[in-house]
Amino acid sequence: MFKKGMRLLVAAAAVTPLLIGSASAAGLISIIVTDPANPYWYTEGEVAKKTAEQLGYTASVAAHKGDTNTESTLIDTAITNKSAAIILDPANADGSVGAVKKAVDAGIPVFLVNAEINKEGLAKAQLVSNNAQGAAVGAEQWVNSVAKSGKYVELFGNPADNNAATRSNGYETVLTQYPDLTKAAKEVANWDRAQGYQKMQSMLQAHPDIVGVISGNDEMALGAIAALKEAGKLKQVKVGGFDGSPDAVAAIKAGELQYTVLQPVAVFSKEAVVQADNFIKTGKTGASSEKQLFDCVLITKDNVDKYVSAFTLAK
């Protein structure tokens, strides 16, 4: 999906709230992500920032870390700074509606990336991965990796994020077609590697005979892998992920992770800024609808060599 282009560093980074650089004739685009310590969200912010700067804007990145109060404060700051547009990865499908409305009421167009809010007509665009499609292809690959019988467990993301339920439901739709596969447990690990590790430890104690782990994202999957390695069970228990993070790509190459589902974060983060630029200049985004889905790509041992870094800005 990605062409050869500029590769982004995806090391963890601390991002200070809305630091404004030199003035730009085109104005400021404020970018608010979840947590740049996660390479997925780091890339999301950096791609949006670089694209905005290439289009002549000043751009700044801040992080709410899933807290709607912090998100609201950052929106206030973006309003005070007279942003030309806001690119937002919302903290909560319901809880972020008020923050988006506040920006819109202040005359600032908002473009959502990665996650949706449960209200249409406020944001100018909601650009997200096709999580249902990605979950379906991931689940099919997971079945092929694990075999079609045995007990398995699921690691679930943040319940406040619609993506978590969409992926889980997509897994369920596929896996229930295999009656000899039994879900022994399902634990919330909030997209977090440390929580994935802890929840995997407790599920292993309760269900030592599981054959697989299906995870809502790569960070939780990588935490599970660490727990399985520690318990000496990684060879018997197959793990699948979702996101296409660089660490997941490395784990596939090492034979520790069976697959990941690449979310085209670089693509929709860039596109959100392009649509914001269109709207600022013409009053239209250039897209045919507010909600826009971007298909995911399956990465396995068979094609992993194409993805030295999965989070790449396409030219």
Mean pLDDT across residues: 90
Helix content: 25-40%
Tally the structural domains: 2
Would you identify the CATH H-level superfamily of the largest domain? Response regulator
* Poorly predicted regions: 1-23
Indicate the structural class.
Answer: alpha/beta
Protein name: D-ribose ABC transporter substrate-binding protein
Keywords: Signal
Family: Belongs to the bacterial solute-binding protein 2 family.
Subcellular location: Cell envelope
Q: Describe it for me?
A:
By secondary structure, the protein is α/β, with parallel strands linked by helices. The chain has 2 domains: 129 residues, Response regulator (Rossmann fold, 3-Layer(aba) Sandwich); 132 residues, Response regulator (Rossmann fold), CATH 3.40.50. The protein is built from 9 helices and 12 strands. A 6-stranded parallel sheet has the order 2-1-3-4-5-11, with helices on both faces. Helix 1 runs parallel beside helix 9 and helix 2 runs parallel beside helix 3. It is found in: Cell envelope. Pfam families: Peripla_BP_4. Its main location: other. This is D-ribose ABC transporter substrate-binding protein.
